[in-house]
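Quick illustration, no need to memorize.
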Amino acid sequence: MALIADPLPASPATKAQISVFERYVGRKLPSDYRQFLLSSAGRLLILFTLLAGLMVAAVFAAMVRPRPSAITRDNEARIHKGMTVDKLEAIFGGSPRDESTGPTDFDPYVSLHVLGRPAHRR
């Protein structure tokens, strides 16, 4: 009974290894498959490349993911007339910035008093 010394080799096969295998199975491998076995990169190299690619993708995704906005209903409720810019910056976590994700439109179906402000009177 033949024993498999290394079921997952980490490098391309050698001509000697292929010859031993061909003798074991009793026939010669097709030339294109033989060439593939001689020239293919090792499985560990492929695995390492895939893992490195996944790590780069994960880091990139974490970098471009937007941070949570400080513009919330709770922070809006903390704003009152006469506040200084320093107090506003403390509430909203820094200097003024644009956190919109695109064009913003007024929604006529939302009453302003629902948003925490008094309703507009005519």
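The helical segments are 15-25, 31-39, 43-64, 73-77, 85-92.
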